[in-house]
Design brief:
Length: about 290
């Protein structure tokens, strides 16, 4: 699932292709739960307009629409936002991949999983939003319209400080890992980076949040920023369906210290990395380095 770094990498790659270009046509798939704003209304609100900017809020992308309003995009589990003409075999499903020769795989054509296709009034590439599992979302907010999704976001994971995290965890009986995944507490954090940050901080994921010390909260905040900035730098984690918008693979999965390394030796102390299920998500940790 794309987390903050993957969304940020997507934003940086796609913003130059999406911002400042007039949308001539918006092609959409059929109405579905992907569309928080019905396709017809989305087309009416966006065609003939350009986006002035594209920002990130937690795991959401937020475009400022010329003439007012905001475009909200969420990649969900398998959402991909990319320009037409990019080459990546993972844009195709396993079934299609099995049926196609490698050179055919590289020539992606919009399919029924392509829910949005922005076509512009210049000769440049179209921008596509493709999502096989449709947990992604699109919404057009009218000028001044509030969004419950945005209003409930906590401090961004790249901006949260140790003191703020310490205050947010006081009196909380939930496990620290569970709290880090709560978007109302730390916006943008997901499973991979929570595990990695807790390893760097030396804190076990199962620790009761209210018992984590101020110093440890400081280390967790630093750890979150460190792993996420490094991941952004390397193009995000290419785990499951994530692919960078230019069609290349991210590189961060090669630098993981605990995530998905169950049974492998800890790079710091040599003990075997353990895995447990916490709040229906798997948590990975080192019994030697984390307490
Ligand atoms: Zn260790």
């Amino acid at each position: 699932m794309p987390e903050l770094p993957e969304v940020e990498v997507t934003r940086r790659c796609i913003a130059p292709l999406l911002v400042g270009r007039r949308i001539a046509h918006l092609r959409t798939s059929r109405p579905s739960y992907f569309f928080l704003t019905p396709p017809a209304r989305l087309r009416r609100g966006l065609e003939g307009r350009a986006l002035r900017s594209l920002e990130r809020a937690g795991k959401y992308l937020l475009g400022e629409v010329e003439g007012g309003g905001r475009l909200l995009l969420h990649l969900g589990m398998t959402g991909q936002l990319f320009a037409s003409g990019v080459a990546s075999v993972r844009l195709l499903s396993a079934r299609q991949r099995a049926a196609l020769a490698p050179e055919q795989q590289r020539a992606f054509r919009p399919d029924h999983h392509t829910h949005l296709r922005f076509e512009f009034d210049d000769a440049g590439p179209a921008v596509l939003f493709r999502d096989v599992r449709k947990f992604g979302k699109v919404q057009l907010l009218a000028p001044g319209e509030r969004s419950e999704r945005l209003d409930r976001l906590g401090t961004d994971a790249l901006a949260i400080g140790g003191d703020a995290l310490f205050e947010a965890t006081r009196g909380r009986v939930a496990a620290i890992k569970t709290l880090l995944l709560d978007q109302a507490v730390v916006a943008g954090t997901g499973n991979i980076y929570a595990d990695e940050a807790l390893f760097l901080a030396g804190v076990r994921p199962t620790r009761r949040a209210g018992r984590v010390t101020r110093a440890e909260c400081g280390r967790i905040a630093v750890g979150l920023r460190q792993v996420m900035l490094r991941s952004i730098e390397t193009g995000g984690s290419s785990i499951s369906d994530y692919v960078t918008p230019d069609g290349s693979d991210g590189g961060y999965q090669d630098e993981r210290r605990v995530y998905a390394r169950e049974g492998e030796p800890c790079l710091a102390c040599g003990r075997r990395i353990r895995r447990l299920v916490l709040g229906q998500r798997s948590a990975h940790w080192c019994p030697g380095c984390q307490r």
